[in-house]
Amino acid sequence: MVLKKKKEIQVDAFFLDHRQLEKLQRFSKAEEQNLASLLLHCAQLSNGIQQIQCIKQIMPLVKTMDQMSACNPMAKACFDILGEVYFSLGAKNPLKKVLASSLNSLPEEFMAMALKSFVCCLREELKTTDIYLYRKVLDNLACCMEDFSLGRASVKNLFEEVLQFLQKSLLGIREENRKNHGNCIVQTQLMHDLLIAIKVSMTIVQKLQENIQGSLWKHNESFVWQSMCSLLRSSTNFLMDATLLQTVQTTSGLAVILFTKAMYEPAEELPSLVSDLLLGSMKHAGVPSWFVSICGSLCTEELPDSVLLFLCHGALAMLEWKNGSMCENGEKLLLDIASVLLSLSSELKDSSMATSLARVLAIWTNSALAALVSGSPNLKIKLNGNSDIIGKLLEYIYTHWEHPLDAVRHQTKLIFKNLLQIHRNTITGCNERSDPFFARLMKHLLSLEWHVKGKYASLGCLVECVGTENILQLDRTIPVQILDVMNDQSLAPYASDLLETMFTNHKAHFTLSVQESTWIDQWHDIWVSPLLVILCEGNHDQTTYIIDYYLPKLLKCSPDSLSYMIRILQASADANLGSRNTRGALGALMACLRTARAHGHLELSNIMSNGLISTECIKQGLVHQHNQVCIDALGLLCETHRSTEIVSMEEMQLIQFFMMYNLNNQSPSVRQQICSLLRKLFCRIQESSQVLYKLEQNKTKQGLLEDSTKRHPLGILQQYKVFMSSVCDRLFEVLFPGSSHSTRFSVLTILGSIAEIFSVPKGQAQVFQLDQEIDSTRVRTLIQCFASTFEEVKALAFGLLMKLRDVAFNLQDSESVDLLFQAAVDLSTSTKPYDCVTASYLLNFLVYHKGLQHICLRRWVKHNPQIDENTSVSTVEKNTLAVLKLLLVNVEEEIFQAKKSLLQAAASFPMYGRVHCITGALQQLPFNNLTLVPEWKEMVARLILMSYKLSAVVSPVVQSSSPEGLIPMDSDSESAGRLQMILHEIQPQDTNDYFLQAKILQEHCKVESEKLADHRPMENICTEMRGKERQTCDVTAQMVLVCCWRSMKEVSLLLGTLCKLLPSQAAPEPSDGLITVEQVKSIGDYFKHHLLQSRHRGAFELAYAGFVQLTEMLSRCNSESLRKMPEQWLSCVLEEIKSCDPSSTLCATRRSAGIPFYIQALLASEPKKSKTDLLKMAMKELISLATPLNESSSVIPQVHALNILRALFRDTRLGENIMPYVADGLQAAILGFMSPVWAVRNSSTLLFSALITRIFGVKRGKDENSKKNRMTGREFFSRFPSLYPFLLKQLEVVTNTLNSEAEELKIHPSLFLLLLILGRLYPSPMDGTYSALSMAPFVPFVIRCGHSPVYLSREMSGRALVPFVTVNEVPHTVLSLLERLPDSTSPCIRQNNIHGTLLQVFHLLQSYLESKQLVSSDFQQGLDDIITCIGTKLWLAERSNPCLVTRAACLDVLVLLSTHLGKCQKQGP
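Structure (tokenized):
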């Protein structure tokens, strides 16, 4: 509803040098305006927008000049300057486009002069020799060729020079890129320059065909021919160079085909040449020698898959497929490209390549559609829906329609849509709706489960071909089925899109075919009535998603249906008010009205005045016991289609009524929605008030007021002001000390929105100002919110006070500020962790006070009068520097004392609070605009040094092998011995006896007091320790640990903040920036040391947070030594892991502690669009370590590798870049599970769990057998083809251990994992016969797994068998299983085998009977055979079978069959 303000367009102005200005001044005339004076005036303007207006006046002025002026020196000088200005402007500067547009209308008589000037300027541009300035020249060439006649003529005149420059730029940029290997920033810039150079080359060859046509240029001596050969050679080299960015290679593929097309004769043979290239069947005899010499690498080598893909793209994009211009060779090429692309689909698994392949396949379908228009009958047969190519494309679609990449899913939908059109074109003249291909597709799609997301988009495309009515004839309950699916948010968008397609198509069908108006009732029965039932009685999630996704689309299609909804719901609203769990008719009514008003389908004032809905009805909704009904009722009042709609008096009263009861809602999501809706209301008030102010200023426009607003604008504005004032009163009324967190959150969020929306812009009247409602009591109330234990409340209060800080400080006297500062300093050293957060917010607020230095800081920090005298220094900078000095002095003193007694520090002055306040102060400081640079340099150096000192004191604890149990609380000899071992390990800096026994610290102890006092400068004594009353406190191991790990956490965040805030200042010399390269390197070494050695999770997790900030800064740093550090660190740590050095300090327990975090940070910081070389290198090493070829003496490297892989596969930032390694990771996990070492098995289990989540998605329900986190067998093995032979081999090994004849229990460790994976697969009726991966080899092994002595393994084997048996093989497989069951007279009856077989029979039959397949006569015959066969095994369900488990399993099969037969009898023959 609330529209964003349009950003002001920024236009950079151009400036002329002294020489150009002098030239214009020489020709300009003061008494009259000529071209020179106009240009001079334009150049003197500093505003780009004004210059645009000035340039637009040039052409009208030129057109008034006579023909004699065409030879005038003044005109020549002006065109020279215009040319220089044009080529000096950036490509994206609007001035450039305006100038080109103006010059396009240049009179003919001036064209020659202007062309001469532009040619001269372009010639100078082409003389550029600096490689890093090539981009500017290339941009200018691109602009000249883009809708600029003068520019194109200039390029045409200098065609040979342009070709020469392009050759030079392509070769030069590539060589420069080679020299800068490893410099990601420079290489990325050069890659984009190279991309532009290739694109410009293609543009010039395409648009200046006449310059390269004819016979003269095709001689070997011709310069143009030589240039074209050079461009083709460079493009071929780029295409084959895998080190370049993929976009460069893709564009090179386009260029190769385009340049070959321009040079190759006869043109009719070009498709055959491209076909031979793609199929690898090039015969040099029929190919021109020049092509072999230039593109030899394409002719002689077996082309990489990526090169084949790019060539296919080039052929599809650059060759003409319309109007039958490709002839028979072209049709063959089209089919060859399809076969090549489909073969690549099983090879290219990299995310970027998979996306490109999907996009190229979509382009192929477009080309096929174009070719079919005038194609031969043979082509129509080859592209018919029943052909092999279309079948394979459908297989590709079914495999990729649930691909994790959104881009692939989108392209898959386009491919399917185009395939339907291709088939339609091949059956022109036939009845589409009765076509067997469409009928078969429809049947298969409807038989799919509704959890398959690809089903929705495909059905939507099919609806457009066959119509909704045809689909509903198969099953009238489809709309209800789809609505039932919408309780799952992941499916709701897909379901709503399908429903929209269906009901829109259905309405169009009725409109065209039914003359009477009665069809609307039938349409309502199908599409609206089920919706109303669910809105009244459905669960919360389902109704919410239907309202969000479905209802707006339904109302958009049929706005008149709203009256039908209101009428139906009003009739039952009084009787069906709903409950805490259901909306009822009242809730459904509120939801429909809210949606309709938000989308502009109704006016609230109209329906209230017409009596369709009463105020009391809305009030009932506002206080309904169902939260979402309250939200919908509030949304009805707040959301409107127009953001300037006047807020009526009734709406204001209802809002006040709502706020009486709902500010204390306990649900976080409801609170967020309340605050969001009220924000929309305040925006309406603010924007409509601006309209009212304008109306008041211009009385003549009073008639523009809405009919509903008969009051005077000033009256409405006054009502707005009173309403907003009453809202603020209500909010502050409930914001009292002790108010609940939910109330505080709601109130502070709403007040923050008011302060932001009603801020006063200069020169604009404002209907309401929050600062006028603030008094000293309310300021104190807001400050007291800092004491909340919830940080989000502190943050909201701080944000609000910052908006009101001028008023807040004016209402606070010096004594109050002093007390607040004193409290902040005291809290910064509290032993309660949340107190230091309060202190940080207080200090961050107080540093904005102008008088802070004089009021309280002088007593703490030595005064520097020079800083006060420097008026250019901002208040925030001065105060922050002083506060940091104070905190730093105190924390340095506390570190000094902690060295003597860590226990004393943990109990009395934990240091982490001070450091937290320092970090908080730094984070809000504008480091790009500092004045006191020398002081800040010193401060940064001291902060880094302090961090290292504090870390040295506390790190022995968190790096201990037992950080949680440092101090035993008993004195038995075993504990004492263990304690001595820990002490020897960590070698604490303090030497007192606090570690030797449980200790009660008494601060009034004279000895301790004297010891503390001896080492403390009197002028900087912390008041916390100086003025405390005498007290005693027990020191526990937990207190010491909390003090230490929190201190480590704050140090890490502080160092990370320093690196994050100061990346641009990093420099080799201290004088050049606030932080030096050496300091950054030392911080990196610090993080490396602590991440690799800390044992406590809290310590290394937060060290990781700081380290991530550092690595992100390093990846974009200009310093080469810094930029290469992540690669060096990664190599070092991988080498240390591999070395198995006994002296290594790496932690092999605690899931490798901080090592996975360390490697995660290094890999995740790589630029997203880079080649991810670090990731590739690390994964290669880790996979090899995780799957050792021989049983080495040490398994520690393998454990580390498994733990690191687990962390990497769980890291969402690595995204699809990690997917190519999933198969190898899964193999490592399964093989590791067979290790005799427990540590390896444990780590393998964790890795396996992470991989299952990565492959199948996050499990969102409790049902272990749900199909939501599954995929079809063919889809699984298509994505991970290497797992096919691996799982098959492992399954064979596992089943060989299941010796049913032996009495002893033999269980292979991998059995459970294999069945767990196979059980996640499910069969699909869409599985075709075009995949090379047959499921049949798995069947006998999975059947044998059913003989396992473990109950769970047998059950899992029953589920795992289902995806490997195709639909038509189910009867045969079930029969063979039943025949294996023993008779009651058999001598050897093994109940485990019987149970496993019965479970497999049950799951096979259940899957088929529930799959909504239209049962064929063949299956009916098979079902009869199954029933006959199971009749011979009925003894298994009788008392003669002593095993209750197998008896129950047999009964389950019988119940399943009898239930199915009962349904068949009811439905009739």
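Residues 668-697 form the longest helix (30 residues). The beta strands are 1000-1002, 1032-1034, 1271-1272, 1321-1322.
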